[in-house]
Structures are given as C-alpha cells and as structure tokens.
Amino acid sequence: MNVIAMQPTSPAASSAHTPGAAQTPGSAQTPGQSTGQATNMPQRPTRHPSAPIRQANIVAVASGKGGVGKTWLSITLAQYFARQGIRTLLFDGDIGLANVDIQLGLMPDRDLGSVIAGRFGLADAVMPSEAGFDIIAGKSGSASLATLDQAALNGLRDELCQLARSYDKVVIDLGAGVDGVVRTLSQAAGTILVVTNDEPTALTDAYAFIKLARMADKTADVRVVVNIAATTREGERTYGKLNKAAENFLKFSPPLAGVIRRDEKVRDAIRNQMPLLTRHPMCDAAEDVEAIASGLTGAIARARY
Ligand SMILES: Nc1ncnc2c1ncn2[C@@H]1O[C@H](COP(=O)(O)OP(=O)(O)OP(=O)(O)O)[C@@H](O)[C@H]1O
Ligand SMILES: [Mg+2]
Q1: CATH of the domain at 63
Q2: What is the C-alpha separation between 27 and 174, in angstroms, rounded?
Q3: Cβ count near 36 (within 10 Å)
Q4: Is residue 230 part of a domain?
Q5: Hey, how many other C-beta atoms are within 10 angstroms of the C-beta on 233?
Q6: Helix count and strand count (H, E) for the chain
Q7: Does residue 266 line the site of ligand 1, with CB under 6 A?
C-alpha cells in the first residue's frame, strides 16, 4: 500500500488525558431542552482548541475517502443501540453536506443551521425518529455551515459533549476527509471508527486520518471498520494491510472493530430511505454491524429480530 505522508494542518500536540473520560463541565440536560446559548455566542465556555474533551459514550464515524459507508453505518449503529434500549442520539456531523435525514427519508423541521445562526441551542435541534433514536440533522448546501470558524466549531463540539450526558450513546456521522470540522468533532469522541474498503485510495486516506488523529492525541481510541468486503476473510486481509502500514510508520496498531460484507440489501434500504434493521433485519450486513455495535457496548448481541 502506498502511504501518503500527510502533514498535519493543525497543532499536533495536546495534553494527555484518559480516553473516554467525561471531562466536560456543565450539568446534565434533557434532550430537547434549550441550553439558552447559540453556538456562536460569546458567553459559551471557551476551551483551548487543542484541549481534548472526549466523552466515553460518543462514537465518531470517519473515513478519509468519501462514499465508503459512513452515513449508512452511523444510522445502523444508532438503530442497533436503540433496539437494545440504549438512549441514542445520531448527530449529522457532515456539516454542509448532510445526508442522515435523506437516508432516513425525513423532512427535518429543525437542523444545525438554526443552531449555528444562534436561533436556538443544540438541544433544541434534537428530533425523535421512528427508528427509535434521536437525531440532530445537518443542513445540506449551507455555505455558512461549511465555513464555520474554529471558535464556533469548538462551541458546537462542547455543546455536543454536554448534550451527550443526556444519552447512553451518541453517534457522530462525520464528513469525508480531514478538515477542521472533522478534526474538531473527532475530539469529542471516546471512540473513533475509521471506515475503509479495499481500494488503495480508501486505505491511503484511512491511514492519513489515523495518522492525524494520533498526532493530535496519542491516546485517541481509533478503530478500523472494513466495509463492502467480498468476504469476512477478505476484509480481514484488507485490515491487515492498513494495520501493517500503521504499525510500520506510526508505531500504532489500530484494532479491527469489524468487517462488514458487501450486501445488496444495504443499497436497497438506502434507495428506499429506510434504516437497514427495519427493512432487512436478518441480512449479512445487519449481522456484521451488530457485531461491531456489540463491541462498542461491551454486550454480546444474542437477540436477532
Ligand atoms: N456493506 C455494503 N454493501 C453494499 N453497498 C454498500 C455497503 N456499505 C455502503 N454501501 C454503498 O455505499 C454507498 C455510500 O454509502 P454512504 O452514503 O453511507 O457513504 P459515506 O461514507 O457516508 O459517503 P460520504 O463520504 O459521501 O458522506 C451507499 O449508497 C451504498 O450503496
Ligand atoms: Mg455520508
């Protein structure tokens, strides 16, 4: 595998911390209850941009290369958690190119756009979904969201960390790449899943993401998901290539969170704008995501539905 030696675009070093430890000040909040603060308002608690503020119950889904299955995986993880009785929030962190609502066939009556504009707080943007979990929808095609300054991004991240205290699990569907939004929201996550497939470009970009995440925070809990694998064995081989590069060049071995097989049922569910576990609960991809989700909850998934 060719590995692009990417240069970090932000200050790399940050202070050590306990991964997963909830370190955000502020009291717990009921979903839907206003913080009374807009994301870009001056009275929001400020924080050094590089300060890690990870919440153990936040899982961020990242990739590097686009189109490898982040949004679909985020939705399916959230649906799995909700079915286990876990209070779950799905946050569309693909700011400016939001897709969660589209894949779920929702017409959100509120989204991040209003939060950023300062019309209400992040908790007020929460809406329930029929799939059993809460959602904060992004806003597609909004230039103001795509060009948020770092202070506003930090504020958004901090508000999300605070809101996460009201949930058992929060899943962040990140955008592709390694831009400021992705890096900032990644800082909130106790666990980061990096999704790749077997294409050299996807692997190279996944490597770049892992490199930057670890440079920013040596203790970041970064795990790999190989998606659209021909077989589980093939997926494990793909992981082996990525792991070897990471071991050689980063001296870090990201654990394999799981392999998801290529499954036509995934496309069918997306085309029909329905969550996979509703439309095809027994398919191969559903089984594979359940195994990954179980690894994130520590529970053994025995129930099939
Ligand atoms: N396990 C799978 N089997 C078959 N097809 C899949 C699988 N996972 C994802 N896909 C296909 O990949 C496409 C892209 O998925 P998705 O939109 O979730 O990717 P993404 O990483 O969020 O993309 P983007 O970077 O543009 O946000 C889906 O429309 C689906 O057709
Ligand atoms: Mg997406």
Answers
A1: 3.40.50.300
A2: 26
A3: 11
A4: yes
A5: 10
A6: 11, 8
A7: yes
The alpha carbon of 25 and the centre of ligand 2 are apart by a number of angstroms equal to: 30
The boundaries of the domain holding residue 265 are: 55-297
Question: Residue holding tokens 């962190």?
Answer: 93
The number of folded domains in the chain is: 1
The H-assigned helical ranges of 29-136 are: 70-83, 100-103, 112-116
- Shortest CA distance to 255 belongs to which of 270, 240, 266? 240
Give the pLDDT score at 170.
98
pLDDT at 239: 98
- In the chain, what are the helix, strand and coil shares in percent, each to the nearest 5? 40, 15, 45
Q: Return the best residue to mutate from 65, 72, 91, 267 for the ligand 1 pocket (most ligand atoms within 8 A of CB).
A: 72
- 25 occurs within a structural domain: no
The Å distance, Cα 73 to ligand 1 centre, comes to 8
* pLDDT-flagged residues of the chain (< 50): 1-48, 299-305
Task: Tell me the one-letter amino acid at 200.
Answer: P
> In one letter, which amino acid is 254?
P
pTM for the whole structure: 0.84
The reply to whether 160 falls in a domain is yes
Q: Is 212 in the pocket of ligand 1 (CB under 6 A)?
A: no
To which residue do tokens 């609502």 refer?
101
Q: Count other Cβ atoms within 10 Å, centred on residue 133.
A: 25
Secondary structure of residue 88 in the 3-state scheme: strand
Nearest CA to ligand 1 atom 19: 69
What does the pLDDT read at residue 21? 35
Q: 94 in a domain, yes or no?
A: yes
